[in-house]
Write a structure and sequence with these properties.
Layout lengths: L1 H32 L1 H10 L7 H64 L4 H33 L7 E4 H17 L4 E7 L3 E4 L1 H17 L6 E8 L3 E7 L33 H11 L3 E6 L6 E8 L3 H5 L1
Parallel strand pairs: 2-4
Antiparallel strand pairs: 1-3, 4-5, 5-7, 6-7
Helix pairs in contact: 1-3, 3-4, 4-7, 6-7
Length: 316
C-alpha cells in the first residue's frame, strides 16, 4: 500500500511536469510567432523599440520555471513526509514488540507465583525476574519521554560538576551483572580523575543506551569494551563492541531519530531512539559523540568527548 501511494505521487508529479513543460514550449512558440503583434501592442501602449516580445517571453519562462521548481519541492516534501511517517509506523511497531517481551515474562512468572509450589529460592528468583522486566519497561518509557523532551527542547536540566571516577566506578559495579547476564563480557578501563559539567542521570542514560546498543548487536559470548581516559582539555568515553557493525555510509545517520541499521534482525531491532537520545544529552553536556567503524574488524566504536572543567570554573 505505501509503495502504491508513492507510485501515485510520482505519476501525478510526472504528469503535471509534462503538462507544465508542454505549456512552456507552447508559450515560447506562441511568442516567437507573434513578435510583430506584441511589439505593435506595446507601441500602442506608449512603448518604443522592438524588444518587448523578449520581455514577455522571459517573464513567461520565469513563471513556468518557478512552477516546475515548486512542483519538484512539493514532491521532495511529500516523500520526506512519507519517509518520516513510515519511520513513525515502524517506531510504534518496534515499541509494541519491545513491550510484548517483558509483559510476557511478567505474566509467566506471575502465573507461576500464583500457582504456588515454589521453594523460597525459586519464588525469589521469579520475583527478581519480574522486577527486572518492570525495569526494562520503565527504561523504554523513559526513553520515549526523554526523546520527546529533547525533540521539543524543553525541560532542560542544568549541569553540575560531576566526578567521573566516582560515577563510573559505581555505575559499572551496578550494571555489570545485568549486562553479563545477557551472555556478553563487559570489560572496563577507567583512566580518569576528571570533573565534567553533567548530571548523573544524564550520563547514566547515555551509558545505558550505548551499552544496550552494544550488547544488542553483539554475538553471544562476545565482548563489550568501555574505556574512559583523560586528555588535556577533554575526557574521552569509548564503548566498543564486536557485533555486526554499521556500514560506513550509514555512520552519519545512526544518531537520527527512529534510525534502524540496514539488515537489522528481529532479535536486534529496537525503538530507534537510543542513539538519538545519546546525541541530544551529550550536546546538552557541551560534548560531542561519533560512531567509528573498526578498520578490518567487526563491530562499532562510539566515542564521546566531554570538556573537562575545574571546580573553580564550574562554580563561576
Amino acid at each position: 500500500m505505501p509503495r502504491e501511494r508513492s507510485r501515485r505521487i510520482v505519476f501525478s508529479y510526472v504528469l503535471t511536469l509534462l503538462v507544465t513543460i508542454a505549456l512552456l514550449v507552447g508559450w515560447v512558440i506562441y511568442v516567437l510567432r507573434s513578435v510583430s503583434t506584441i511589439n505593435e501592442l506595446a507601441s500602442r501602449l506608449g512603448g518604443t523599440g522592438e524588444t518587448y516580445h523578449w520581455i514577455v517571453l522571459g517573464i513567461g519562462c520565469a513563471l513556468f520555471s518557478l512552477v516546475i521548481v515548486g512542483l519538484t519541492l512539493q514532491l521532495a516534501h511529500a516523500f520526506a513526509e512519507r519517509r518520516y511517517s513510515r519511520k513513525q509506523e515502524e517506531f510504534v511497531s518496534n515499541v509494541t514488540h519491545e513491550m510484548k517481551s517483558p509483559l510476557a515474562a511478567i505474566k509467566l512468572h506471575g502465573q507461576t507465583l500464583r500457582n504456588g509450589g515454589l521453594s523460597v529460592k525459586e519464588g525469589r528468583r521469579s520475583l527478581d525476574l519480574v522486577l527486572q522486566q518492570v525495569d526494562r519497561m520503565n527504561d523504554l518509557i523513559d526513553n520515549v519521554l526523554e526523546s520527546s523532551r529533547l525533540l521539543a527542547q524543553r525541560g532542560r536540566v542544568d549541569c553540575e560538576p560531576l566526578s567521573l571516577d566516582k560515577f563510573f566506578s559505581e555505575y559499572f559495579d551496578e550494571v555489570r551483572a545485568s549486562e553479563e547476564a545477557r551472555q556478553v563480557t563487559l570489560s572496563v578501563r577507567l583512566e580518569t580523575r576528571a570533573v565534567v559539567l553533567a548530571t548523573a542521570e544524564k550520563l547514566r542514560r547515555v551509558m545505558t543506551n550505548l551499552l544496550d546498543n552494544a550488547v544488542r548487536f553483539s554475538q553471544q559470548g562476545g565482548e563489550v569494551r568501555c574505556l574512559v581516559r583523560d586528555f588535556d582539555e577533554h575526557v574521552r568515553i569509548e564503548v566498543e563492541d564486536e557485533g555486526v557493525g554499521i556500514p560506513k555510509k550509514e555512520l552519519a545517520k545512526v544518531f537520527d531519530r527512529f534510525y534502524q541499521a540496514g539488515g537489522v534482525t528481529e532479535r536486534r531491532r529496537g525503538t530507534g531512539l537510543g542513539l538519538s537520545i545519546v546525541a541530544g544529552l551529550v550536546k546538552e553536556m557541551k560534548g560531542s559523540v561519533r560512531a567509528v567503524a573498526r578498520d578490518g574488524q567487526r563491530g562499532t566504536r562510539f566515542v564521546i568527548e566531554l570538556p573537562r572543567v575545574t571546580v573553580k570554573e564550574s562554580e563561576s
